[in-house]
Amino acid sequence: MNSQVIAKMLFVVWLALFASSFIMFMLTPSKDFGFTAGANRIVVFFGWQIAAGFVGFALWIISRNLEVSTLWRWLCRAPAMIAALLFFMVLFLIIGAIVGKSPPQDNVAPDGRPTTTAPPVTENPPNDP
C-alpha cells in the first residue's frame, strides 16, 4: 500500500471519529442533576475528539510523504488544524470565563427605607370539625 491509500483510509477513520463525537454527545443521556448535569456528555465528546486528534496527527505525519501538489496532502492536514482550533477555542473560553468575572460587590442591600411595607399577618384559627 502506498501513502495515498493509507491517507485516504485514515481520513475516513478520522471523519468517522469526528462525526461520532457529535453523535455520541447527542445520544448520551444526562445522568446527574444540578451542577454536574451533562458533565458526562462533555467527557464523551472530548474522548472521541482526542481519539480523532491522534488520527489527525498520524494523518499530518503521513501527509509529508505525499506529493506536494496533491489535494490529499492538504486534506490530511485539515484534521490536525481542526483539532488545534478546537483546543484554542476551549482555551479562550476558559480564559474568557476567568477574566470576565465581575468583581464582588460589597453592599448588596440598598440604602434607605423600603418603598412599601408588608401587610399585617392575621392568624386564622384552624377549621376543626
List descriptors:
mainly alpha; 129 residues; 0% strand; 61% helix
Word description of this protein:
The protein has 129 residues and is an all-alpha fold. Helix content is 61%, strand content 0%. It has 3 helices and no strands.
Helix content: 55-70%
Poorly predicted spans: none
Strand count, sense and barrel status of the largest sheet are: none
Average pLDDT reading: 82
- Tally of DSSP β-strands: 0
Q: Helix segment count?
A: 3
Structural classification: mainly alpha
Note the overall shape.
Answer: elongated
The topology string of helices and strands comes to HHH
Please state the CA-atom Rg, rounded to the nearest Å.
28 Å
**How widely separated are the two ends?**
92 Å
In percent, how much strand structure appears in the residues? Answer: under 5%
Task: Lay out the secondary structure.
Blueprint lengths: L2 H25 L11 H25 L7 H29 L30
Helix pairs in contact: 1-2, 1-3, 2-3
Task: Explain briefly what this protein structure is.
With 129 residues, the chain is mainly alpha-helical. It is 61% helix and 0% strand.
